[in-house]
Amino acid sequence: MTSKNVTKVATKVACVQLSSGPDIHENMSVAADAVREAASNGAKFIASPENTGAMILDLKKKIGAAFTEEDSPAIPFFSDLARETEIWLLIGSLAPKVSGARLANRSYLFSPEGQVFAKYQKIHMFDVDLDTGESHRESEIMEPGKETVLVNMPWAAMGLAICYDMRFPHMFRDLAKQGAQVLAIPSAFTVPTGKAHWHAMLRARAIETGCFVIAPAQCGEHDGGRKTYGHSLIVDPWGRILAEAGEQPGIIYADIDLSLVDQARQSIQQLRHDREYEIKKVGF
């Protein structure tokens, strides 16, 4: 598979690593400062983590703090910010009210003109019980999305996803087969699963698809005592880590050269080699 959008000039991208709290206005201000810094350093695409708007553990409190899309202060704020900085801006996710006590975990991609160019609603719900006793039930208040999103921008074709989606590799393979060259996976990963799986899964998604992976993350301790892993990553199509953040808020950068997508896919043409098969069960 060859890329549709071949560019001879690498595009500088940035991940903004945040430690968001419960106050959306404070979080907007902190995120904006980081975005302006990244833009001043030459980044043309900047991504923030999942839950950029607010990190709130208590579900009732989370619902009470939510806005509808129409009333959200964050959407016009980040629209103006993208226009001001003249960059492509991916806000990893906000949590707008969609009906009654139901919210959406939704990414927003803003164009340099400030347009909401694309939206993606998280499909896979984070319902887990960890050995540490930590338990999450995203499905209790979140409405899952029903469609993947592939965005054709001037500098790359990008597939959008959010956090827990990364555990479903077929989703990213399908995006790559449809032309994705870059995968954006903003996240708020728990510390235990981050230590065990974060690097391995993101590198695997890059290798399996021949895509760049851009994964901005939340870090530190948040409202209600929830802790997130940090370690935002930018990974190339061969699975090499180009940039990695630590466990504190900050910014990482990398140059996206789409010729590396073609090189990886020409070397190992796995996206063309799927075959039909059946599972033969023995001893059941």
Brief write-up:
This protein has about 280 residues and is an alpha+beta fold.
The multimeric state of the shown protein is: single chain
The average pLDDT score comes to 94
Report on the biggest sheet: 6 strands, mixed
Spans of 5+ residues with little confidence (pLDDT < 50)?
1-8
Percent range for helical residues? 25-40%
Task: Please state roughly what percent of the residues sit in beta strands, choosing from under 5%, 5-15%, 15-25%, 25-35%, 35-45% or over 45%.
Answer: 25-35%
Number of DSSP E strands: 18
The level-1 CATH class:
Alpha Beta
Supply the CATH architecture: 4-Layer Sandwich
CATH fold-level name: Nitrilase/N-carbamoyl-D-aminoacid amidohydrolase
Instruction: Give, in spatial order, the strands making up the sheet with the most strands.
Output: 7-6-3-2-1-18
Q: List the domain count as a whole number.
A: 1
By secondary-structure content and strand pairing, the structural class works out as: alpha+beta
Span of the ends, CA to CA: 40 Å
Q: Mind telling me the C-alpha Rg? A: 18 Å
What would you give as the CATH superfamily?
A: Carbon-nitrogen hydrolase
Q: List the secondary-structure elements in sequence, H or E.
A: EHEHHEEEEEEEEEHEHEEEEEEH
Count of alpha and pi helical runs: 6
Form type: globular
